[in-house]
Structures are given as structure tokens and as C-alpha cells.
Backbone:
């Protein structure tokens, strides 16, 4: 027993030493971890470098088959629609629509829609998207039944939109509607697989009225020479010059259609030729407002991460009430928020199994400022709700849009206490200072994010003010500069004459 | 007389400073009377190596000042990725390689200038850069982008002036005709490429050779233990 104590003491000492040794390595291990994985939420700075940011959204809930109490779990769901407090999940693999209600982190199953009363056929076949209009009528992209079904809120058949018989629609192609939106006047816009002429447009009565928003076909003169030089067989094998297909569409508050595509030449992204996100007006032209240097293309930094590489592939988009639009990237499972001017507000997400990460995100929608992301592999919907920081950003942009510039600047100052790298906050404060005629301070705020346009405006006014204040001195200096040489010349002349005499 | 005392003497030598000042001042004469100026520069010894080095140093310093003090409206520099030494070398090395290539060609094709002459001529010819860049830096801080035309025009003038002076300098130093000068400037550019290629080749061979001996040493050490 007596000999036992020193033995124990030695062991304890060894243990303490081991812990100390481990602690020595810990900081470096942590540092390496931070360097390797950028934070969950981030923004891009002027130099396209990632700047870590506080989280703008956090996971509020995870809607799963089990949580909903579904007897048959979800199978490869592809479409999602959210309106008021209702959530419609297109359970593609089970040929049904699941309707759920969601409010403040609580969700419950409302009903399962698997048939349309009075339609032929009355069941769905791999439905890919669903839309619900203001009066509760549901529109379902019933893909393998080659139709879009419209039904009332009690699932009674109203009408269907079928393959256009018009000659502009290639009759050899099968009609496979995959995504749709319905505008306020009941016109239906849909995407169909293999159709690259843009959106298929139907009037309220189901009549096909043409395509809108086809991308322009690009044809370089080098391709022309290349075609001249190649043989017939080679020519047949070469890709034909067809416009890109859209992957998804969404409506914004004002009724414009946001369309996204993930087929593009990645070299044309930064020069804003590829335009993966478009806002189409009534005649199908892109009217999205953008920043020239950093257009909305998702990630600007495409560094390889394990088996992931290449640019973001935007596959869904949603537009909030405050006109912020959020794009969903399939490549890295990330969400990108942009304001009305096309400035990135934040980006977050990633691939993985933990909360807030995705395996195969396919659809995105919103209720208020909450975001819903559908994962086809996990068969779940992740619900994100803004954090205090995220809400402040919305608050500041909202106040600015309403014209409350000073209030907006105050909110931006609060945002800066959370994230000192937030360029938009600097610009927001600078703009308010500019309006308050505090030009020198405004210049400082514009200098940090290198916003030379606003800086130039502030500087022009500052310079004007400075000149007006110091006009007397400037005049005096100019006079002195002009008169001195004259006087000096006269004096020299006189001296020379005196010397001569 | 040791090197140190000689150095002290020349630093204290008033006559040396006076001639140095005159040589430096002569750069202004070359700027506005290039044909006459560059002829006298080497043939009449109106310029000196010291003055030439000073102009070169001023040019390099001006370049760094430009990166630091030009307003961000006209030049955005990401200092996280800037190495001042690299910036200097990226200006200095091409000029030196040009001087070397030019001397290599002209010495074979009866050019009158020595290597030193070509170097001095080149340095005097780039004098418009520090002369105009410093006012440009100041200008960039008192104008806005909409008035940027002034800035860009002066930038262009400064480059064209340098190019013009360079050609005249080569012409006068080697006593060539205009056509021959332009031919040899083009030849020099070609020669620069050859020199850079040879340097890279040499470097890669040396690094291969070194890595051979390093691996040999490692192998021996490994066997011995």
C-alpha cells in the first residue's frame, strides 16, 4: 500500500503530461481545420476571395417522412411549392403530392394527394412539380402522363394542358413537362424535357400560345471554319448549335419569371455571357440587374474540394417578398442570396449528412423569409430561418428600398458589428452619409469596398465644397505664382542695368 | 589607397558631385532633344553610369509609389499578393535582358555602343516614366473616373515617349539608320526570348543536377545506417 501512492503519483504525472502535450498540438490542429474548411456562411470580397461571415440562416426544422407520419416514406421527391403556411412536396417516386403545413418550426401532415377526381387517367405518373394559385387551385406537372393537370382544392379535375399541336412544337418529341409556374392571370409557363425553345406558354383556357425566353444561339466564326474543314461524318458527330435548356423557373413578386440553367460554357460565366440566372420579361428578354465585375453565378472561387470541382450549377431559385433572390447550387449544395442589384448577400451550405448540408438538393422555395430546401436523396426538406444577423441584412435592404436611407444606414452599422468584412454595409452607410452631405466620411466608407462609382460621386462633391471654401487661398496662390516670375524678372533686369551703369 | 578611403574620397569630392548633377540634369536635355542628346550622351561623355543608375532607381521607386499611392479608382492593388521585390524585378530584369540582347546583336553588326553605353542610353530613355508617373499619382487623387481621360492620355503619352526615346537612343548610340535600328530592336526582342529560354533551360538543368546529388547523398546515408 505504501509503495502504491508514488506509483499512482507517477501515473498521474504522466497523464497530466500527456494532456499538456495534446494541448500543445490542439491549436495547430484547430488552425489547420479552419484553413481547410471555410466557414459555413461566407461572402466574397472585391478580389473574389472568400471572407468568413456569421451565419445568416440556421436550420429551424428538418421535415422527414417519419416526422410527417407518412406510411409510405418519400421516394426521390423532385418538386416543392410553398405558399402561405402550406408546403407541397412532389413525391415523384410514389406518384403523389404530399401537403404539409408549417409554422414557426412546427410542421404536420395535412393530406396526401394521389389522384384527381374526374380525370383520365386519375392517378399521377412521376409528377415533377406542383404549383398552387391564389384561389387554391393546384397545377401538377404530371410528367409521364404528358400533361399538366389543373384541379381545385378538393382534387376535382378542372382541365389539363397537353402537348401543343402547333407546328412550332416538334411533334416527334414527347411532351414531358417538368417545371411550371402560373401567373396571376392564370397563364401557365412550363418547361419540358428536350425542348430548348424556352418556356412553353399556355393561356388560361389551355391554348398553347408559343415559346418565350429562348437563349440566343451562339456561333463563333472559328466553329464555322472548323465545320468547313471537317467531313460529313465528323460534322454529324459534332455538337449541334442549340440553345440551352432551362432547369427551373420561379415567379417573383411583380410577376416576372426567374429562369435558371446549368448548361453553359464555364469560361463564359464571369464575362456574364453564360447568364445562369435570368429574369425574363413578357417578351422573354433577360432584365436581371447585375454587377459587372461579379455577376450572379454562384461561387466565384471554384477550388476543388475532394471530388467536387467546377462552377456552381444553379438548379432552382426563389424570390423573397423583399426582391432578394436565392439560388440553389447542385455542385456544392449551397444557397446564394442576391439583392435587387445582383450583389451577393451571403452564401452558405455544403454537401454532407449533417443538418444544413445536402446530398442532392433539387428544389427550393420560401415562406416569408424562411427557406425550404428539398433533398432528393435524403428525402427531406430542410427549413432555414434567418438569424439575427440575416434579419438585419434584410431589414437594411428593405429600409433602403422603402426610402428610409438613414434608418438603413443605422441597421448597416449594426450589421458591421457582426461582420466587419461586409462590403454592402459599408456602401449602405456611405450612401446615407452622402445624402447627409458628409462627403469625406462617405468617401472613407466607399474606399473600403472599392466602390469607385459612389466614391467618385462623393469625391466630386467633396472637391467642389473644398474649392468653394478655399477659393480665396487658391486665387491668392495662383496670383503669387503668376506675379513672382514677373517681379523677379524685373528685379534682375534692374540689377543688370545698375551693374552696367 | 584602400577601397574604403577611395569611397570616402569620392563622396566628399565636390567636383564629382558637380559632374554627377550635370549628368543627371542632362537627362532633361535628352528628353526634349533626343537626337542631339543621345549622340552626345555617349560620344561626348555627357552622361554617366552613376546618373543612369539613379534614373533606374527612381524608376523602380516610382513604380512602387504608383502601386501604393495611385487612387483605387484607377489602379486596384491587392497588397496581399504583391511582393515589392518581384515588382521591381519585373521591371528591371526585362530592361537588363533587353540591354544584353541588344548589345549581343549590335556588337556583331558594327554597332558603336559598348554594353555600358547601351545601359546608360536605356536608363536615360526611360526617364519619362518617373517624370510623368509622379504627377500622374497626384492627379489620380484629385480627379474622378469620369475625368479619367486625362489620366489615361498621360499614361499613354509616357509610354510612347519612352518607346520613342529608346529607339532614338539605340539609333544614336550605335550610329545606325532608322530602319536598321528598328530591325535591331525587333531582333533584340527576339534575342530576349532566346536568353530567357536559355536561362530557364539552365535553371532546370542545374536543379536536376542538384537533385541528382541530393538523392545520391540520401541513398548513401540510407545505406550506411
Residues:
Amino acid at each position: 500500500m505504501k509503495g502504491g501512492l508514488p506509483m499512482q503519483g507517477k501515473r498521474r504525472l504522466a497523464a497530466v503530461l500527456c494532456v499538456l502535450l495534446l494541448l500543445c498540438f490542439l491549436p495547430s490542429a484547430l488552425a489547420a481545420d479552419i484553413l481547410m474548411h471555410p466557414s459555413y456562411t461566407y461572402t466574397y470580397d472585391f478580389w473574389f476571395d472568400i471572407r468568413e461571415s456569421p451565419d445568416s440562416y440556421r436550420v429551424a426544422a428538418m421535415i422527414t417522412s417519419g416526422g410527417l407520419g407518412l406510411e409510405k416514406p418519400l421516394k426521390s421527391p423532385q418538386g416543392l411549392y410553398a405558399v402561405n403556411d402550406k408546403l407541397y412536396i412532389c413525391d415523384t417516386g410514389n406518384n403523389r403530392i404530399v401537403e404539409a403545413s408549417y409554422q414557426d418550426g412546427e410542421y404536420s401532415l395535412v393530406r396526401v394527394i394521389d389522384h384527381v377526381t374526374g380525370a383520365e387517367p386519375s392517378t399521377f405518373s412521376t409528377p415533377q412539380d406542383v404549383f398552387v394559385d391564389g384561389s387554391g387551385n393546384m397545377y401538377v406537372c404530371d410528367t409521364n402522363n404528358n400533361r399538366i393537370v389543373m384541379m381545385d382544392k378538393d382534387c376535382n379535375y378542372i382541365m389539363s394542358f397537353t402537348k401543343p399541336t402547333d407546328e412550332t412544337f416538334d411533334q416527334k418529341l414527347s411532351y414531358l413537362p417538368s417545371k411550371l409556374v402560373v401567373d396571376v392571370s392564370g397563364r401557365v409557363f412550363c418547361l419540358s424535357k428536350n425542348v430548348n425553345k424556352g418556356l412553353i406558354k399556355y393561356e388560361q383556357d389551355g391554348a398553347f400560345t408559343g415559346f418565350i425566353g429562348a437563349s440566343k444561339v451562339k456561333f463563333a466564326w472559328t466553329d464555322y471554319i472548323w465545320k468547313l474543314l471537317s467531313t460529313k461524318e465528323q460534322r454529324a458527330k459534332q455538337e449541334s448549335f442549340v440553345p440551352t435548356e432551362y432547369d427551373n423557373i420561379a415567379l417573383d413578386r411583380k410577376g416576372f419569371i426567374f429562369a435558371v440553367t446549368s448548361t453553359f460554357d464555364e469560361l463564359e460565366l464571369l464575362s456574364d455571357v453564360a447568364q445562369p440566372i435570368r429574369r425574363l420579361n413578357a417578351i422573354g428578354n433577360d432584365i436581371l440587374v447585375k454587377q459587372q465585375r461579379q455577376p450572379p453565378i454562384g461561387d466565384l472561387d471554384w477550388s476543388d474540394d475532394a471530388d467536387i470541382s467546377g462552377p456552381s450549377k444553379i438548379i432552382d431559385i426563389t424570390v423573397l417578398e423583399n426582391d432578394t433572390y436565392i439560388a440553389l447550387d447542385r455542385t456544392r449544395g449551397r444557397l446564394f442570396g442576391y439583392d435587387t442589384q445582383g450583389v451577393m448577400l451571403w452564401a452558405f451550405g455544403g454537401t454532407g449528412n449533417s443538418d444544413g448540408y445536402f446530398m442532392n438538393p433539387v428544389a427550393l422555395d420560401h415562406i416569408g423569409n424562411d427557406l425550404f430546401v428539398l433533398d432528393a436523396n435524403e428525402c427531406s426538406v430542410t427549413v432555414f430561418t434567418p438569424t439575427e444577423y440575416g434579419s438585419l441584412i434584410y431589414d437594411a435592404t428593405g429600409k433602403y428600398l422603402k426610402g428610409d436611407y438613414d434608418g438603413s444606414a443605422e441597421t448597416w452599422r449594426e450589421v458591421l458589428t457582426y461582420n466587419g468584412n461586409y462590403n454592402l454595409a459599408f456602401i449602405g452607410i456611405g450612401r446615407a452619409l452622402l445624402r447627409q452631405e458628409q462627403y469625406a466620411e462617405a468617401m472613407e466608407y466607399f474606399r473600403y469596398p472599392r466602390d469607385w462609382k459612389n466614391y467618385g460621386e462623393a469625391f466630386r462633391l467633396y472637391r467642389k465644397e473644398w474649392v468653394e471654401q478655399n477659393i480665396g487661398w487658391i486665387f491668392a496662390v495662383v496670383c503669387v505664382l503668376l506675379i513672382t516670375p514677373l517681379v523677379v524678372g524685373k528685379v534682375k533686369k534692374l540689377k543688370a542695368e545698375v551693374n552696367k551703369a | 589607397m584602400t577601397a574604403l578611403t577611395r569611397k570616402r574620397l569620392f563622396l566628399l569630392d565636390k567636383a564629382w558631385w558637380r559632374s554627377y548633377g550635370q549628368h543627371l540634369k542632362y537627362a532633361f536635355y535628352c528628353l526634349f532633344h533626343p537626337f542631339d542628346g543621345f549622340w552626345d550622351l555617349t560620344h561626348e561623355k555627357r552622361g554617366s553610369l552613376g546618373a543612369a543608375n539613379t534614373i533606374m532607381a527612381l524608376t523602380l521607386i516610382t513604380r512602387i509609389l504608383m502601386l501604393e499611392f495611385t487612387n483605387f479608382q484607377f489602379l486596384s492593388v491587392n497588397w496581399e499578393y504583391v511582393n515589392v521585390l518581384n515588382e521591381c524585378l519585373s521591371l528591371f530584369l526585362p530592361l537588363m535582358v533587353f540591354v544584353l540582347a541588344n548589345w549581343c546583336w549590335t556588337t556583331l553588326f558594327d554597332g558603336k555602343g559598348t554594353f555600358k553605353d547601351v545601359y546608360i542610353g536605356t536608363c536615360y530613355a526611360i526617364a519619362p516614366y518617373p517624370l510623368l508617373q509622379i504627377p500622374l499619382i497626384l492627379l489620380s487623387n484629385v480627379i474622378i473616373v469620369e475625368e479619367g481621360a486625362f489620366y489615361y492620355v498621360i499614361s499613354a503619352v509616357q509610354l510612347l515617349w519612352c518607346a520613342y526615346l529608346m529607339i532614338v537612343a539605340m539609333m544614336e548610340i550605335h550610329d545606325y539608320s532608322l530602319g536598321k535600328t528598328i530591325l535591331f530592336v525587333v531582333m533584340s526582342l527576339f534575342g530576349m526570348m532566346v536568353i530567357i529560354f536559355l536561362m530557364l533551360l539552365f535553371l532546370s538543368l542545374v536543379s536536376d543536377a542538384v537533385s541528382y546529388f541530393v538523392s545520391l547523398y540520401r541513398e548513401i546515408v540510407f545505406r550506411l545506417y
